[in-house]
TrEMBL record, chain A:
Quaternary structure note: Heterododecamer (2C3:3R2) of six catalytic PyrB chains organized as two trimers (C3), and six regulatory PyrI chains organized as three dimers (R2).
Sequence positions that bind L-aspartate: K82, R174, R229
Assigned GO CC terms: cytosol
Binding annotation for carbamoyl phosphate: R54, T55, R104, H134, Q137, G270, P271
Organism domain of life: Bacteria
Aspartate/ornithine carbamoyltransferase carbamoyl-P binding domain boundaries: 2-147
Entry's Gene Ontology molecular function annotations: amino acid binding; aspartate carbamoyltransferase activity
Keyword set, alphabetical order: Pyrimidine biosynthesis, Transferase
Transferase in keyword set: yes
Name of protein: Aspartate carbamoyltransferase
Similarity comment: Belongs to the aspartate/ornithine carbamoyltransferase superfamily. ATCase family.
From TrEMBL, chain B:
Keywords, comma-separated and alphabetical: Hydrolase, Metal-binding, Pyrimidine biosynthesis, Zinc
Catalyzed reactions per annotation: (S)-dihydroorotate + H2O = N-carbamoyl-L-aspartate + H(+)
Annotated residues for binding of substrate: H58, L59, R60, N90, N276, H307, F321, G322
Function: Catalyzes the reversible cyclization of carbamoyl aspartate to dihydroorotate.
Family according to the record: Belongs to the metallo-dependent hydrolases superfamily. DHOase family. Class I DHOase subfamily.
Top-level class of the enzyme under EC nomenclature: hydrolase
Upper taxonomic lineage: Bacteria, Bacillati, Actinomycetota, Actinomycetes, Micrococcales
Name under which the protein is recorded: Dihydroorotase
Gene: pyrC
Residues involved in Zn(2+) 1 binding: H56, H58, D150, D303
HAMAP family xrefs: PyrC_classI_B
Organism: Microcella frigidaquae
Amino acid sequence: MRHLLSTRDLDRASAIRLLDVAEDMAETADRAVRTLPALRDKTVVNLFFEDSTRTRLSFEAAAKRLSANVITFSAKGSSVSKGESLKDTAQTLLAMGADAIVVRHHDSGAAHRLANAGWIDAAIINAGDGTHEHPTQALLDAFTMRQRRFGSEARGRGLDGLRIVIVGDILHSRVARSNVWLLHLLGAEVHLVAPRTLLPTGVATWPVTVHEHLDDALALEPDAVMMLRIQTERMRDAYFPNPREYGREWGLTHERFARLGPDTMVMHPGPMNRGLEISSSAADSSGSTVLAQVTNGVFIRMAVLYLLVAGADAAISAPGNAASATGVTG
Amino acid sequence: MTSLLIRGAALLGSEPADLRVRDGIIVDRGSLAVEASERVIDAAGLVALPGLVDLHTHLREPGGEASETVLTGTRAAAAGGFTAVHAMANTSPVADTAGVVEQVLRLGERAGYAEVRPVGAVTLGLAGEQLAEIGAMARSAARVRVFSDDGHCVHDPLLMRRALEYVATFDGVVAQHAQEPRLTVGAQMNEGSLSGELGLTGWPAVAEEAIIARDVLLAEHVGARVHICHLSTAGSVDIVRWAKARGIAVTAEVTPHHLLLTEELARGYDARFKVNPPLRRDEDVQALRAALADGTIDIVATDHAPHPAEAKECTWAEAAFGMVGLESALSVVQQAVVDTGLLGWADVARVLSTGPAAIGRLAGYANPLAVGTAANLTLVDPSHRRTWSVDDLRGRSTNTPYRDRELPGRVVATVFRGVPTVIDGAVVDPDIVAAAHLEVRRG
């Protein structure tokens, strides 16, 4: 694996390997010295054309825990906002010696373009591109589900047989797309719920079951319910009439949450609109994985950086050996 | 006196023969002996087509000279076998006055590679609010007969009705860019499974089809003719077929790229494949080919849309719509509909020369390659194959979708008003072309 652009590019073995390496990374979190030397003398650039504090901080933390030099580059106020092109920006970063570029961009396909246009020779990690994909978010979601379901027995496992319901603005959600491909790859049964206006054309060809009414999907007793953020400006474009109606029809209200089984995970990629797509009782419940998702994001990003940047030898080491390969000792 | 002998070309509808061109006119046809001081072009094994006519070219001048000029665009046209091009109105300033269309006309005459017929804007500044001075453009030296806001749809139905009526007063035609604007807000590629997967805003087929349906009914209602630019969907074909069967005066064009390429090319986010209207599904491509073969679609038009490199070396969303197409048009048509057995070379002459000339009211193409007519012709080697590269381009921009793709056919020679503009596949120097035109005019 040279880049991480899309969860569609992963095969099952490499996806499970990533999750397993993230387990190794998670184990290092409780140690006195949490920093690993794996990416010493490597430079990781966070190239953010779009604001995203939580994703940027997560990648920064991950790279620093691996001892990489980290450059964070925000498009706002930079030469990019003065009209410099993606190509020129990429080549400038290459000239600075970037080994990996974590790119967040408002346009779908931006990471793909950086990786394949021949402008730059560095590992590209997609940190969210337009309405296309957000692969590390899907990986951290899958990691969180696996950990919560299987605990210390998680290593080497997929998500076979888990029933996962994703609710909300599927049309504009890069998180949903990445999750659909990854969760299916890992053996989960994926259900999507949204009004027809917020479902992508061609969703019938995806490896999912589509529902228009949330209660129908919740009646299936899912193992996890993932609520997506709703942007109220979608109302203006007539995707739905108003927040009140949206919340009533597709929100995880207190009443709906109360009907869920005791072990059902409640997930949200954040930031949440409490009272719109998710009630506070659901968001703050013991079933909520929202904060665990944030924590696990760092481990997943460490795993991705480690596997992409540490080199071919590291990338072919057996699952579970990441800690030793990075120089971590008990 | 200038004299040119073209020997042994395969002439459509007859045995191979020689053509003698004198002072810009075809003066003899048959088995001819070489005369003293006569220039000879050996055309054995080549197909002689009437000079190609493009109804839809973006020459960008005035205002967009970084992308193309009238000189570089017509040089590209000559390389592609064209002897006439209709230059679209979306220049800066917009071609919405007699002054601008005459400027473009003069630039074309000075370049000498092809007849440049300016297209006039339908509405002032392409703004879709007020009719442009259509009469002044029609009566100018440029004799404008095709009016289009191409790049913009004449969306207001009342304005479109008035435009159809008013343009008809001057024997003109409205060439409509059929794109319902509200249904294509932010649209980036064909709407379908792939757009959903790639996270690119979809461009639904109905956005094109709804406008075509409306406009053929308006054309019928007011008794005017309407031309539909760059059809791209099977549904559009159905509507045009229905309208023609009903007797409505509608003509339609398809681009070479919509006859060959599909939306799958968007998968790599390579902006060379971003075009308006977008590349569609394979089913659409097959329907467009069949419609060209059965006459539902009248002509092929290039929609040659040059852009500088920086307009394409960016993300898909940021990139400009459009691709260059003059140099590659004939090869793409050959691959899509000739080599597949759908069209013969006589049909190619119809869809790429006499058909567009008729729609644009361009004189001199009604009885092509006949004795006594202007010597506008193209010699093609259909057996040639090549891997397409930017070296095959003669315009100013390189945004071709065919780079590294194998294409058949080669334009060996182009003759415009008796003057060779392309010889042995190479474009003739503009000074030599200008001097030759002068000699032809002196007789």
